[in-house]
Fold:
Amino acid sequence: MSLRDTKVRILVLGVGGAGCNALDRVAMDGLPPTAGSEQSEVNTPHLVAINTDLQALSSSLCSEKFQLGLKTTFGLGAGGDPAVGRKAAMEDRDRLAELLRGADMVFVAAGLGGGTGSGAGPFVAQLAREAGALTLGFVTLPFEFEGERRCEQAAAAMAEFKRAADAVICVPNDKLFEMSGERATVLDVFRMADDLLAEGVRALWRMLTKPGLINRDFNDLRRALESRHDEIVFAFGTGEGDDKAMAAATAVTGSPLLGSSTILAEAETILVSLRGGLEMTMTEVKRAVSQISQQCGQKPHVLVAASVDENFGGKLSVLLIASRGRSAAPEAALAGPLPSDREMAVSMLETMAAADPATMATKAGQHTEQAAEKAAHKRPGDAHRLRQQRLALDVNVKGRFDKVEPTIYEGEDLDLPTFLRRGIKIG
Structure:
């Protein structure tokens, strides 16, 4: 299946503030037109900004905007809480499913560590995969100095993303800081993150749509990325002059985005996409790919694409995507239904217990006594309700989210379940 002669619906979604910023960069710079005549509407990627923050969403450059979880957040954002971000996405599950219906390929760009990107991003990715689309995540991780809580939230969201999407390409912000230098401003670093995520989308789009010396189609990409690898990284490099192929390949293999990781030595699959001017030769392609392949200790499956850009004369750019290891989780579990609200509640309680075991132990004792008292007065036939009674629904401890301000609306704490706020008995 090739996008050059087949109608394929592609969605590029920015979820949360960082994701929408990266999408703005794609919208500003555009995407290379599909080969042939005018680019068809079907093969033109649909850029959709998705956010819980109505004010931030209104400033997006994308023509299509998706307000997420209006009843949950009132358009004020997720407040840095992934649970709120996920709840907002679950509120609009049907609308999201309608957006994703019929998509063949979905890019989900998000910054992890905050509320909407961390909570809603993996949820959107899994909906896309359940809809049958090849789903790729492009995510950034927070700076280490942003604090332990934000980094922990990002790590948890990254694990969810890996379970939800076919492949996740991750760019740590600390690596971007190394690339930009000590004198770079905060805006410079975040702009680089936006540029990298945008360039990743453009490079894959270019590989699938632009004719070249070596072409790759949609099925090639699907086979390369659908194996659910444990780690996927990507890097860019550009070279000029007589030895531009070697210069570009050296820049790729020495990229801080690869860090000290041994991923190249252990890579199972590498995808090398080259872009050059009309003068690009097969010898240059071979030289660049060989230079990268020499860094691979095993015999990985190598996919090569080389496209010609008449506006790129005198230069050669190389995109590398390398994947290592397969997820140990069984495919059946990964493809299963999304967690219910109850399952999420249990997971959150377990997380809080790990974060603050002393406090949760005290609370657990209190709830054990309450459960015993309720059990003594239970009616015949109530055995099936014991599982619900054991859930600590009235736990007020938030663990790592303990310092998050409550959501107060017209004097009511919306973080409490409705039946608790209104004194409704369940029985």
